[in-house]
């Protein structure tokens, strides 16, 4: 059986919860051989992260409390896409909101699906360069500290599990590998 033939078919989408950020469904579906199955899906509008460098070639990370895991995390500046929003526009907005910086140059760096077994979120990682400080503009319920550090330190913290956020690990390690290959 080739891959195209392994595709499952949605029969019915049954919403169990509709929230401000996510929706949760329990779908009725058919496996590739026609057997009925149930699939749980979390719908998410997507998100962006930004690898932003200052004039000292340090990257910016933000430290914030994450309620679902009851811990502080060190992450790339990031945010949720509004439904239908252009990822680049979201990256520009989130960089300024969280760090206070605007960038002259943005480039799409990576696209990832954080947990495709149950979550449909598509996450975009951008690089941002040539920064100018304009002033932080956090959301009303957002509290975070901005940290600037050399890439080498961020890599070390990733390997020591001091940085545990998946999108941040991917961004840091991919960037470090690409710089090493240059």
Characterization of the model:
The protein is an alpha+beta fold. Helices cover 21% and strands 42% of the residues. The protein contains three helices and eleven strands, in the order ββββββββαβββαα. Strands 1, 2, 3 and 4 form a four-stranded antiparallel beta sheet that branches. Helix 2 (151-159) packs across helix 3 (166-181). It is globular, with a radius of gyration of 19 Å.
What is the N-to-C order of secondary-structure elements (H for helix, E for strand)? EEEEEEEEHEEEHH
Based on secondary structure, the structural category is alpha+beta
State the low-pLDDT regions, or none.
none
Q: Quick check: average pLDDT?
A: 94
Q: Distance between termini?
A: 41 Å
Overall body shape: globular
Any idea what the radius of gyration is? 19 Å
Strand content: 35-45%
Keywords:
four-stranded antiparallel β-sheet; 11 strands; 21% helix
Summarize the helices and strands and which ones pair or pack:
Layout (H helix, E strand, L loop, with lengths): L8 E4 L2 E4 L4 E8 L5 E8 L3 E6 L5 E9 L4 E5 L2 E3 L6 H13 L1 E12 L10 E11 L10 E7 H9 L6 H16 L1
Parallel strand pairs: 5-10
Antiparallel strand pairs: 1-3, 2-3, 3-4, 5-8, 6-7, 6-11, 9-10
Helix pairs in contact: 2-3
Task: Describe what is shown at a glance.
The protein has 182 residues and is an alpha+beta fold. The protein has helices spanning 87-99, 151-159, 166-181, and strands spanning 9-12, 15-18, 23-30, 36-43, 47-52, 58-66, 71-75, 78-80, 101-112, 123-133, 144-150. The chain contains three helices and eleven strands; from the N terminus they run ββββββββαβββαα.
């Amino acid at each position: 059986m080739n891959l195209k033939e392994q595709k499952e078919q949605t029969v019915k989408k049954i919403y169990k919860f509709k929230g401000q950020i996510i929706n949760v469904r329990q779908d009725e579906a058919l496996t590739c051989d026609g057997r009925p199955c149930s699939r749980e899906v979390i719908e998410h509008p997507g998100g962006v992260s930004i690898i932003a460098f200052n004039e000292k070639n340090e990257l910016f990370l933000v430290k914030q409390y994450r309620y679902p895991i009851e811990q502080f995390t060190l992450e790339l500046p990031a945010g949720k896409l509004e439904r239908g929003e252009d990822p680049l526009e979201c990256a520009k907005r989130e960089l300024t909101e969280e760090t206070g910086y605007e960038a002259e140059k943005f480039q799409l760096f990576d696209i990832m699906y954080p947990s495709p077994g149950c979550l449909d979120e598509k996450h975009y990682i951008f690089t941002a360069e040539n920064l100018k400080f304009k002033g932080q503009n956090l959301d009303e319920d957002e509290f975070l500290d901005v940290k600037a550090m050399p890439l080498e330190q961020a890599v070390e913290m990733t390997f020591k599990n001091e940085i545990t956020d998946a999108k941040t690990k991917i961004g840091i390690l991919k960037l470090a590998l690409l710089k090493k290959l240059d």
